[in-house]
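Support case: L-homoserine complex. Customer-provided input:
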Amino acid sequence: MLRVGFIGWRGMVGSVLMERMREENDFNGFEPVFFTTSNIGGKGPETGMDIPSLKDAYNMELLFDFDIIVTCQGSDHTKSVYPELQNMGWNGFWIDSSSALRMDDESIIVLDPVNRSVIDEGLRSGIKTFVGGNCTVSLMLMALNGLFKNKCIEWLSSMTYQAASGAGANNMKELVAQMIAISDVTREKMNDLASTAIEIDALVTGQLQSLAFPVSQFGAPLAASLIPWIDRLMDSGQTREEWKGYAETNKILNLEKPVPVDGLCVRIGAMRSHSQAFTIKLTRDIPLNELTDMIQGGNEWVRIVPNEREATLKELTPAAVNGTLQVPVGRLRKLMMGPEYLTAFSVGDQLLWGAAEPLRRVLNIIIEYLS
Ligand code: HSE
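Agent response - structure generated as follows:
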């Protein structure tokens, strides 16, 4: 029976992965073993089957014995363990949520509703390293796959509205702590019907600018504000998050002629769903109804939201999408710049399609390939 090792299953992406695997009854047909960096001998997650106690995630001899290793532990662990396993001549499959190996020539970025043929070809040619993509890129490709498949995109600009979860679990908590700090100073005025919005705003602004406001994770207020910077500066002037748009899109699609992708990435006060506003330069003038059909045909999770207020408010927001696999695409219309310019808006849960779901699915694809 195949032996599958899971590392980093307790963190945010790992626990969403475990939840999805339980929901889909994936703990079947292989022997799962769970690893830890801090609790050797402890109890693993609920899988519906008997599992051994937690093993040491740095024990190379133990790891060497596995056919497949799935890790959500993060780049540092990957960088410490993966090269050593390779040096030892390990021949197993490595499935990784971190970015450590994403741009390696010997790895494939996985998003099977979009690049199943690239994954299958990789398996046939002996690739053994499969890495989840950047969440913003994966969600953009889930939304616009129909246009890429039909080769309609000359270039693409994505302006993002990224949720706190993309920065990590502590950041999500800090966002809520910021909301609490704001409600603490405004509660009295909010309960006074005679108070004005200007008075309340003065209290909110005073709190945002106070030294006591909790910003240790984000470095700035996010609640009642936004942060137009994600990750570190690159030589190009892009942030690394913006740089990934072009690099990862073209690697995932394995395009002969790369499609330019660029834009600004902005952190906003959503919890776990990223949103993106697209400006798309089409390769030719295509009627809007044909473009809509293509987008709808991209995959079974895309849902077109009519360009109407009621539908948009109901279906095209982080609040509506959080915790679901749906990828709504709306606000579709041609821009004033000309008939070859399309705009669209999309939302997706960055912990599901943006992180855990492609890993869950590629694990199943590899198990099926090996059976
Ligand atoms: N880097 C992304 C973000 C999340 O900061 O939102 C992970 O892909």
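Residues 134-135, 162, 166-167, 230, 241, 350 surround L-homoserine (CB under 6 Å).

Case will auto-close in a few days if no follow-up is received.
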